[in-house]
Amino acid sequence: MKILAINAGSSSLKFQLFAMPAETVLCSGIAERIGLEMGIFTIKFNGKKEVLELPLTDHTVAVNLLLESLLKHEIIADFSEIKGIGHRVVHGGELFKDSTILDAEKVQKIADLSALAPLHNPAHILGIKGFDAVLPDVPAVAVFDTAFHQTMPAEAYMYATPYEWYADYAVRKYGFHGTSHLYVSHETAKFIGKEVADSKVIVCHLGNGGSLSAVLNGESVNTSMGFTPLAGIPMGTRSGDIDPAIIPYMMQKTGQTADEIVNDLNKKSGFAGVSGISSDARDITSAVANGDEKAKLALDIYTKRIAQTIAAYLVDLDGCDAIAFTAGIGENSAIIREAICNRLGALGVTINSEVNNATQGKAAVISEPTSAIQVVVMPTDEEVMIARDVMRLAF
Ligand code: AMP
Predict the structure, then answer these.
(1) Minimal CA–CA distance to 161: which of 112, 223, 226?
(2) Tens digits of per-residue pLDDT, 68-82?
C-alpha cells in the first residue's frame, strides 16, 4: 500500500512516498517557489534525480505535477495506488492531542488555529486543499508537531502569567518538533534495551531549529519550545529564551515595531546573530577552528544552554536513562555533541570520543560504559511517523 507524507510550506511542498507497511521510501522530493514566476520541482527515486524548472502557480498545480511525475517515472501505474496522505501540521493547539483523519470541519479548525502559527498553518491548509482538489476520495490525516507534548502537566505548560492570558487567549507552552521527539524517544528506549513504558529519555533535536524534550515512560513531560518555536535554546537564526523586557527596550532604542524586533529574534539571532558569520553549524565550527572569537561565543552560548536544559530535565524525570541527539546537528556534529557532553560532568556523563567522532547519521551509543547516563545518537524520521499514523488511523 502506498502512502504519501507531505510537508507543505507557504511556497513549497515536500513529499515522500512510502510502500507500507514495509516503510520503504519509493521517492522523495520538493516543489519550491510555488506562486513565484518560476518554480523548481525536484524528485529523487531509485538513485536518480530529476529537476524541473517551470511555473508552479499554486499548490494544486504542484500536486498535479507531483502525481504526473509518479506516473511518468513509473513509480506508480495509477493514482488509485495512493491509499492515504499524511500532512504535517505545525500547530494543533489544545484541540488535537493526536493525529486525526481530516474532514471539512477539522480543516476549518486547523485554519482557526492560524493565529497561533501564522507562518505555518495557512500553508498546511494550502497543501491539504491542493490534494483534496486532485484526490478527493483518498483519506488524509493531519499529524501535529504539538500533539506529542499535550501530555505535559499544567505545571510544565503554564507560564506564571495572569491566568486569564491562558483562559481567554490560549497563552501556554505548546512545544514543537513533537513527531521527532516521539520517534526518537521511543527508538532510543528500545535501542538501549528499555521498555518504552519504563524509560526516562531526554531528546535533543538540534537542527536549524532546535528543541529538547523530557520523555517519561514514552510521554512528553516537558519541552523547551514554548508558545511559539522561538522559545528555548538558541538556534541557527533564533534567539531562544530572552528576558521579554528587552523587546520594549529595543523598540524604544531603535524605533522598530514589536513585529520587527520579533522578526530579528527569529531571523537575525542565534548562531547567525552572535557570530555575524552564518546560521549553519558547519560554518560556525569551522570558524571556531580558525580562531574566530564571535563564532566561539555563539557556540559556547549554544552548548551551555543545551547542557543547562538537559540538567533541568533530570529534575522533571527524576533521573535519566539516556540522552539522545538527533536532527542535522545532533546526528552529524561530533564536535558539538562532545562540547555539550563535556559540560555534563556534574551529572556523571562521560563520552567515548573515538566512537563519537566515528558516528554520523546512524544510531550509536557514544557514552563510556561507566557513564551515569547513556548518550545516544538516533537519526530522526518524521516522515515515517506520518506514514505510520496514516496506517494506524485510516486502515
Ligand atoms: P536540520 O534543520 O535538521 O536539517 O539541520 C540543519 C543543521 O544541521 C545545520 O546547522 C547544519 O549545519 C547542520 N549539519 C548538517 N550536516 C552536518 C554535518 N555533517 N556536520 C555538522 N553539522 C551539520
Answers:
(1) 226
(2) 999 999 999 999 999
* Alpha-helix residue ranges (DSSP H) falling in 244-377: 246-254, 258-267, 270-275, 281-289, 293-317, 327-332, 334-341, 353-357
What pLDDT digit, counting tens, does each position of 300-344 carry? 999 999 999 999 999 999 999 999 999 999 999 999 999 999 999
Label residue 40 exposed, middle or buried (CB < 10 Å: 0-12, 13-18, 19+).
Answer: middle
Give me the phi and psi of 89, to 5 degrees please.
-130, 125
Q: Spell out, as residue ranges, where the chain has pLDDT lower than 50.
A: none
145 catalytic? Reply is yes
Query: What per-residue confidence (pLDDT) applies to 118?
Result: 86
Whether the CB of 178 sits within 6 Å of ligand 1: no
Catalytic residue among 78, 103, 112, 145: 145
Q: What is the pLDDT of residue 20?
A: 98
CA separation for the pair 135, 313 (Å, rounded):
44
Q: How far is the CA of 364 from the centre of ligand 1 (A)?
A: 18
Query: What are the C-alpha distances in Å from 2 to residues 14, 26, 80, 101, 138?
Result: 16, 9, 9, 17, 11
Residue 40 has phi, psi (to 5 degrees) of -130, 130
Q: Which amino acid is at 90?
A: V
| CB 282 near ligand 1, within 6 Å | yes
Residue 140: what pLDDT? 98
- By C-alpha distance, which of 153, 170, 180 is closest to 316? 153
Cα(93)–Cα(172) distance, rounded to whole angstroms? 10
Q: What angle (nearest 5°) sits at the alpha carbon of residue 69, between those of residues 67 and 72?
A: 115
Closest listed residue to residue 128, CA positions, set 111, 115, 116: 111
Looking at residue 119, its pLDDT comes to 82
Q: What is the structure's pLDDT at 10?
A: 87
Grid cell for residue 279: 546560521
Set out the domains of the chain in order of their start, with CATH numbers: 2-144 (3.30.420.40), 194-377 (3.30.420.40)
Residue 93 alpha carbon to ligand 1 centre in Å: 29
Task: Look up residue 205 and give its amino acid.
Answer: H
